[in-house]
Amino acid sequence: MSDERPPLIDPGEAHPSLVDLAEAFSASPANAVRNCLKHHGQTLIPPCDIGINAQVTGHQRPLRASRTLYGGDIMDTIHTMQLSPLRRELLEILKERGYRRLDQPIRLASGAMSSDFIDGKEALAEWRHLRLACEAIVETVTEAGHRFDAVGGLTMGADALAVGIAAVNDCRWFFVRKEAKQRGTRRWVEGAQIGPGDTVLLVDDVVTTGGSIFKALDIVDQTGATTVAAVTLVDRSGLAGPRFEQRGVGYFPMITYDLLGIDRVEPVAAAS
Fold first, then answer.
1. Residue 56 domain-assigned?
2. Residue 138 near residue 219 (C-beta atoms within 8 A)
């Protein structure tokens, strides 16, 4: 994709910083990346115009580009600077309290293997950290124009987030069971009994293929409630976004694998 605008960072000027690049990115991504990389000694720029594939996520435009092609440090800086202050704090909490690099890979719920272990529940086990995450989620969703009167998702990944967001947003919470209750009411949904006329925010902590959150979406659809948006704490693959788009639901991953600086988890079929 050709970019006819003049460079916002002049190659003739002395060494622009990564901050310069981040500030220039939103207006002229191709020229900003190209010229800053020249100054930082990157040589992998093709002799053609650079097209940047930006994914619109609410009011943000997080960059989606090759770390190999454009330089990992520079891309990480752009990604991080595009986050709100709350989301930047959340990123640091997850890095410090919820992430471990394992010596041997483990099998994830999706069936894929990974040595990058992320535990959102452990990361947010203190109320101050959970509250910050929930405030960041409410900020992101409401600034994108979505309003909801109930929040929930599949137990257990959604549980703490659902209650925390309900407290921050002063609304109702619910949990979706993994199996319908086998006695009594035989319910799928515990907590708020959602139904026609209710607007719902779906949440989950860490997703790869999104199996859990889409199961919750199916159950919410059966109640007659309307899911207006879905939020995940960490998205390890980027696979959930297109599926939510197909179903007309806004999707907001708070933190992604590239922001954490870890490898994308490939679906099992593609990895085999």
1. yes
2. no
Q: Which of 195, 155, 196, 149 is nearest to 173 (CA)?
A: 149
Q: Are the C-beta atoms of residues 79 and 61 closer than 8 Å to each other?
A: no
Task: Give the contacts of 50 (CB within 8 A, at least 6 positions apart).
Answer: 3, 29, 30, 33, 34
Provide the whole-model pTM.
0.71
Domain of residue 195 covers 88-271
d(CA 215, CA 233): 17
d(C-alpha 35, C-alpha 10), whole Å: 7
Cα–Cα distance between 64 and 104 in angstroms, integer? 28
Can you tell me whether residue 261 is helix, strand or coil? coil
Strand 53-54 relative to strand 113-118, pairing: unpaired
DSSP state of 50: P
For residue 180, being part of any structural domain is answered with: yes
Same domain, 51 and 152: no
Residue written as token pair 């137990």: 155
**69 or 78, higher pLDDT:** 78
Number of domains in the chain: 2
Do 165 and 51 belong together in one domain? no
Dump pLDDT digits (tens) for 161-207: 999 999 999 999 999 999 988 777 789 999 999 999 999 999 999 99
Q: How many helices (H) and strands (E) does the chain have?
A: 12, 10
Asked whether 135 and 168 are in contact (CB, 8 A), the reply is yes
Geometric angle at alpha carbon 66, from 58 and 51, rounded to 5°: 70
